[in-house]
């Protein structure tokens, strides 16, 4: 295993203005974590960083994780495996693999070991008995949950929180809850933390966040917005995709409509509705995941 470079320069912050933002006297900035790491973007590097460090410190020679076939987590894990010369294994939701899928092709190019299971088996990924079976099958491997969200991941997201300027509101897309939990843990209580759920019926994530973050149970400065899912995970409207394209043209801000675009569109709607008090300082965390655009193009969804 190659020496792990854990520390990279902090990602930049981009100011966004518009007539509505200016009229309401708001300050809106984007934390460009899509530019954080040269190969593993956004919250995926934040989450993997301390998982890889734990694996290294505990003398494990491999890791194993869980993923869908187009997942940013699969992409990031595969890239980490290749860059740092780590043996990587992924329990992949099947039952079949499309070898032409660009994310799968990239994982193959990184020599990631893909173990395809049917959907019934994959649903057991968070079951402790099933995870124990996986650990027996791969005895010297560090187990990373789907999406990378665990206590090790929170260490990386706390670093993100501490890197942010003083803000009244911090917003981020929310899939598995780890980024939101880490922001709650690492941010000042004077900041209001808002997660935009990208999945339908995502209210259950509130309990997952409480399980990850001790501070979430005692603080009232956070919320999960569940009405901006756009129809469910992986679904989006033509209006949302047009919004993403317009943001790229107007601000040179690349977005994809599954995570970052969906959450930034929610922020834009809240601004248009006059949700935020005048003079509010708002920061949006761009969690990366732009590789997902290749999968959407492959499936002719954009």
UniProtKB/TrEMBL annotation:
The modification N6-(pyridoxal phosphate)lysine is found at residue 44. The active site is at 71 (nucleophile). Its cofactor is pyridoxal 5'-phosphate. The keyword Transferase does not apply. It holds the Pfam family PALP. Keywords: Pyridoxal phosphate. It comes from the Bacteria. SUPFAM superfamilies: Tryptophan synthase beta subunit-like PLP-dependent enzymes. The keyword Signal does not apply. Residues 19-288 form the Tryptophan synthase beta chain-like PALP domain. GO terms for molecular function: D-cysteine desulfhydrase activity. Belongs to the ACC deaminase/D-cysteine desulfhydrase family. PANTHER family: 1-AMINOCYCLOPROPANE-1-CARBOXYLATE DEAMINASE-RELATED (PTHR43780:SF2). This is 1-aminocyclopropane-1-carboxylate deaminase. It comes from Pseudoalteromonas citrea. The lineage of its organism: Bacteria, Pseudomonadati, Pseudomonadota, Gammaproteobacteria, Alteromonadales.
